[in-house]
Amino acid sequence: MGSQRARTSVWVAVADLRTSQLTMARYLRNPETSPAPEGVEPRRLQIYQDLIYNNIEGFISSGFPVLRSLYSKPAWHALVRQFIDDHRCHSPYFLEISQEFLQFLLEGHNPGPDDPPFITELAHYEWVELALMVSSVEIPKAISDDADPLTAIPRLSPLAWVLAYQFPVQMIGPDYQPAEPEAPVYLVVYRNRDDAVQFMALNAATARLLELTRENATVPGAELLVQLATELGVDAAVVQQFGARQLTEFVDSSILTLS
Prior knowledge:
This is DUF2063 domain-containing protein. By secondary structure, the chain is mainly alpha-helical. About 55% of the residues lie in helices and about 10% in strands. It folds into two domains: about 1-135, Orthogonal Bundle (DNA polymerase, domain 1); about 155-259, Outer Surface Protein A, domain 3. The relative contact order is 0.10.
């Protein structure tokens, strides 16, 4: 009987603790709409509130500096507050808050009058730059400094991402904010061997050429260019001429590796 009472007391204590934690969490997410937990002095609650919000907002602002620059201060803080209140993060790590914020914009955010039409594309582009910057992946060593990309096997670097957007995200800033999508924008964003994150503008043909090198393990560059010419329906000789130069530029930029 005594042990039963003890188990019941423990269960009640655990339930009370969980209720208190949930009340605190709801309050910290949105102190304007959720009641404050009982028994905690307002000064201490304000410290918790400021600590949580400032840390999250700081990580988001540093991860999306261009996007942040397009908002007024009240509009930006309203967006961050909505993220904190509405989004349920799947990772406990602060370094992954940027990815969670991007997920929120893609899936849980209803754009409002303060949001630019390119909000998700610009956020994705900035997140890619951050992801490449902090990645622990290394570029495979080159087989030779003077290897010929036509006879060697070109392969997309694991630190090179081929991207397509409706808006020219690489050009967007406070002084340039397009209202409508333009022609498709193709980019490769990459980290080179000096650990600098950069981008290169592509066209549809060069973007497809890079896609052909993804996971390529057996096909030399010259054959990839023949395949590209067939897909484009153009003279293979023309593609070989510009393609050889393009492959060399990609290798020199650490976008492609040769094996």
